[in-house]
From TrEMBL:
Source organism: Cereibacter sphaeroides (strain ATCC 17023 / DSM 158 / JCM 6121 / CCUG 31486 / LMG 2827 / NBRC 12203 / NCIMB 8253 / ATH 2.4.1.)
A Pfam cross-reference name: Abhydrolase_1
Protein name: Esterase/lipase/thioesterase
InterPro entries reported for this sequence: AB_hydrolase (IPR050471), AB_hydrolase_1 (IPR000073), AB_hydrolase_fold (IPR029058)
Keyword Cell cycle recorded: no
Amino acid sequence: MSKIEHVHHKGARVGYRDDGEGKPLILVHGTGGDGEANFDGLLPHLSRRRVLRPDYAGSGLTVDAAEVLTVDHLVHQVIATVDHAGIDSFDLAGFSLGSAVAVRLAALHPGRVDRLVLIGGFIHAADPRSRLQFKLWADLARKDPATLARLMMLTGFSYAFLSAITDLDSVIAGMVSGGNWEGVARQAELDLRVDVSRELGRVKAPTLVIGNRCDQMVDPAASIALAAGIADATLAWLEGPHLALMERPDVAADLLMRHLAD
C-alpha cells in the first residue's frame, strides 16, 4: 500500500503517494485524474524506483481554496511535494495536462530534472476541436457529471477495452460519486489556457515524447509538435487511445523505463 503524505502549500493541503526505493521518479497526472487512477497500473513495472505521485489542485488527495488554476500553480504544488519528500534531483513524467506541467517544471528547474517523459501531451489547446472539447468538459463537470464520465470513457479508452468491462454502469456510478467535479471543471478551464510553447526551448533534460496513435482526446500531432520543439527529443508511440497507459501499462512502462535507463 502506498504511503500517503501531505504538505501545506499556499493555502492548499497537497497530497501525494510515495512508493518504493531507488532513484526518484515523479509522475504528474492529467485532467480529471489523479496519481492513483492514472498510474496505479504502472507501479508494478517500476519496482526499482522511488515513485512520487502528487495530486495537484482539483484532484484526489489535495484540498485547496478552489482558485482559478495556472500551470505555475500546479508546478509549485508538485515541487512542494518533492521538497517535502526530501528529494533533490529526479526523473519526471507527465501525462496529458501533466505533460504541460512537466514541461514548465523542467524549464524552471533544469538542474533538478534529470530525464523527462511526456505522455499524450500538448503544447496548447488553440485549435477549435480542443477548445470545443475542454469547454464541454467544464460545462458538463458542473451540470451533468454522469454524462461527462460516459464521454470520457468513450473517448479515452478503446472499443476493445470498454467492451470487456461487464458492468460499465457501476464503473460510471463510482466515477460520479467519487469525483471532484468542480476540480475537473477548473482543470478543463486550465486546459483552455495552457501554452508552454515558450518553455520548450528551455528544456535541458533528455526527453522522450510518447504519443497515442488512436487518441480521440488529444490530437496525436500534438506529440509530434512537442518532440519537434524540444532539442534532441525522441518520439515514440503507444498503439492505442488517450488512456493507453491505463489499458497497457506494461507497454507504457517499457518505453518509459528504457528512456530513463539510457
